[in-house]
Amino acid sequence: MSRFGSLPRRLVHVAIVLLGITLVTFFLLRLIPGDPALAILGSSYTHARAQAIDSGLGLNRPIWSQYGLFMNHLFHGSLGFSYFYHESATRVILNHIPPTLFLIAYSAVLAALISLPIGFFAGLRRGRAVDQFSRVFFTLSFAMPAFWLGIIFILIFSVHLPVFPISGFGSGLIGHLYYLFLPALTIALSFSTVLVRSLRTSTITTLRAEFVDTAQMKGIAWSQVLRRHVFRNAVLAVVAVYGVNLAYLISGTVLVENVFSLPGLGTLLVNSVTDRDYPVVQGVTLVFAVLIVTINLLTDVVQAALDPRVGQEIGT
Amino acid sequence: MSRGFRSRLLGAGVVALALTATACGGSSSSSGGSNGTQGSGTLSTLTIANAVKVDTLDPEANSVNESIWLDQNLYSRLLQPNPTGTGLLPDLATSWTISNKGLTYTFHLRPNAEFANGMPLTASDVVYSIQRSRAYKGGWGFLLTPVKTITAPDAHTVVITLSQPHAPLLADLAMYAYSVVPEKLVKAQGAAFFTHPIGSGPFMVTSYNPDTEVDLARNPHFYGIRPKISKVKILIVPNDNTRVLELESKKVDVIENPPGNLVSEINKTPNLHVQLFPSTRVDFIQLDEHYAPLKKLAVRQALNYAINRNAIVQLAYQGHAVPGSSFMPYRMEYWDSSIKPYPYDPAKAKQLLAQAGYPHGFTTFLITVSGDVAGQAEAVVIKQELAAVGITVNIQSYELTTAYSKEDGGHSQMGERYWTNDIIDPDEVATFGADCQGGANAFSSYWCDTPTINAVNQARSELNSATRQQLYDQVQQAVYTQSPFMVVDYSPYRYGVGDWVHGFHATPLGNYDLSLETLTVSSH
């Protein structure tokens, strides 16, 4: 029997969740005081100019017909027309996806590179210097807000020791890796705290497990026991934490994108809410929703792949 | 919301410390960017960091100031405002005549004008561009309501006829919305044209990324002064602290709007300074007459006597603003210099309140914009000073557009607002601020004064400038004494500039295109 048998049912749930999100975003947005005409006109607002803008943007139609039009466009693969950028919202959003996606992936990899060895080591050498030092360091980095840590990094590595650029996305893979190093490190450091703590705890628990004693008694070399039995089992617990926090990390990109002037989805979302650029806000929310739902689904799938016992539970 | 506010202050603290460290340490690390040199010791590129992304390069649809100022480098108009914003200079039109009792304007275009691609700029491009912007929904067409026809009798002449005399016409035509675009290309390419626009200004776009960077190069076909710099880079750096650090590390030459609390720190840093340019910004407090106490004239006057404008200027702008008197922008054309700010006189305020039937004051609210540091400081001072005369003020902070919508519609009481001119003629600010039938309900105060409305309308069609001055004096006096809103101060534009930039200047409308034609950048 397949480990992933209940996947289709999960996918149906995903579709319902996404439909709900379109409804909630669409109507919540229109409940916020102030409309696109006001955001565009600001202090030179007059009723006549606002009416002209509304009729140009189709905002004078009944709200249900506006929602129907939005869904109709959505099923045809279009998110509508951005009021602020004067071009297709789909294109605006597509242009902003690469920096955010790259930043999330980069921070996730950096966080794994930082936290897996340190967390595992801290668990093995419980109470010793490595453990104590990592505990203090990561508690501090977790407590430092991203916008503050980011500025400190800029001060040290861009102003006083000018080795990294202050802002921008760079071009080409190497350029992106170079330009996004400081922002990714800013995110990865606070993300690592949770991973180091949970890996340390699960390593300590796993070390006490009977199968570790059994493996040792079978005469398997200690390094082999650590690699095959302890690390693999300990990491399993971290995967779920990793997945849940990765979703949380997406919302954390907003502040870091602002500090490092990255033209990503987080910045776009905040600006578009301020501009009352309804089509873009709806689109970005949908993209974030898809991203989070996908990560949750993938987390379950990875857990099922790592641990056969989990497979039976997917979808229940 | 308070989180964003705190975050800025915390970050600003770090940057302030860093700047102080640099100031004490003397030398700062200098890492000149990729800036080509030309001649002896001068550089060919100017880099400006703006706080706000570009909305569009289409002049008819621009709504963001930074984009408008960028636009001015790319396009030309029939005329342009002078550097002090008090008069007009020829641009595409070298001369013009007004005939038929002010109903016919004939503009003579310079014969050598070309677009950046070498295509000749003709009168039909001008006619097309004005008509196009006029027709834009929600745009600036309403300014040109009296315009009957716009025609091009030959390739170098444009004739505009009016249904009634319209004094602001020349100022209207000098506005960004009436920039000239090439008819043929815009018709052929539509919206796509404005991602790589071709105009007839001193610079042209070489690369356009509205969220990160827009690069300009000198337009070889420009008819005016050949700029000394050959390239301009506009970077978009939204975070205030990051922008200051970009300037400190000399990666950029000019930054827009450095945070007010860092001004003195920047000035202490070697090779950096903050330049203040008079603007057309007027900060005022909206008073909505739908709230009973604010309908009484004595109460509105009491409010004016109760607030200390000098204290607000100190706390909100560190002294870098001018206490407000007339509702028209500071020292603009027709600004009445005989009007003085209301003196700070709490005793008189109490007396006026008692006279109005509020001897023990009343309770009201004041709407502010969250994250606006200067605005919050202003609100705190007002709350404290009105409390001293018995008025309880509850400060309500909202995000920008929410604040605007709370202030509109007649359900407000007091609200922080500001005005900036789009044209140099007072007609715009008078219509929005003093004419309750002008579309903006006299800055949402709903104050209606028939003599004032008549004066605003009469001044619009009056061509004699002495008579116009009298009419606008009358309007300014009426707004001052009747106080439909409280004029608080005139605040300047702030730019952080490296000492290696010589000659950067912004006009009161915010345009800096004229200075880019002449400024130089030394190696640093």
Structure write-up:
The complex is a heterodimer of chains A (about 325) and B (about 525). Chain A is mainly α. Chain A contains 14 helices and no strands. In chain A, helix 7 (about 145-160) packs across helix 9 and helix 10 (about 210-215) crosses helix 11. The radius of gyration of chain A is 24 Å and the shape is globular. Chain B has a seven-stranded mixed beta sheet. In chain B, strand 6 (about 95-100) and strand 7 form a beta hairpin. Chain B starts with a helix and ends with a strand. At the A-B interface, helix 2, helix 3, helix 7, helix 11 and helix 12 of A face helix 1, helix 6, helix 13 and strand 19 of B.
- In DSSP terms (H or I, runs of 4 or more residues), the helix count of chain B works out at 18
Largest interface: A-B, 55 and 55 residues
What's the total count of β strands of chain A? 0
Taken as a percent bin, the fraction of beta residues of chain A is: under 5%
Spatially, the strands of the biggest sheet of chain B line up as: 10-11-12-3-13-21-14
Radius of gyration of chain A: 24 Å
Question: What is the helix fraction of residues of chain B, given as a range?
Answer: 25-40%
Number of strands of chain B: 23
Oligomer: heterodimer
Give the overall average pLDDT of chain B.
91
Number of helices of chain A: 14
SSE blueprint:
The complex is a heterodimer of chains A (316) and B (524).
Chain A: H1 7-31, H2 36-41, H3 47-57, H4 63-75, H5 89-124, H6 129-143, H7 146-160, H8 172-179, H9 181-207, H10 210-217, H11 222-259, H12 265-274, H13 278-306, H14 308-311
Helix pairs in contact in A: 1-13, 5-6, 5-9, 5-11, 5-13, 6-9, 7-9, 7-11, 9-11, 10-11, 11-12, 11-13, 12-13
Chain B: H1 2-25, E1 37-38, E2 42-43, E3 45-50, H2 65-71, E4 79-81, E5 88-90, E6 93-99, E7 104-109, H3 123-135, E8 147-154, E9 157-162, H4 169-173, H5 183-189, E10 203-209, E11 213-218, E12 231-236, H6 240-248, E13 254-256, H7 263-268, E14 272-277, E15 282-287, H8 292-295, H9 297-306, H10 309-317, E16 322-323, H11 346-355, E17 363-369, H12 373-388, E18 392-398, H13 400-407, E19 414-419, H14 427-434, H15 441-444, H16 450-461, H17 465-482, E20 485-490, E21 493-498, E22 501-502, H18 513-516, E23 520-522
Parallel strand pairs in B: 3-12, 3-13, 17-18, 17-19
Antiparallel strand pairs in B: 1-2, 2-23, 4-5, 6-7, 7-9, 8-9, 10-11, 11-12, 13-21, 14-21, 15-19, 15-20, 16-20, 22-23
Helix pairs in contact in B: 1-6, 9-11, 10-12, 14-16, 16-17
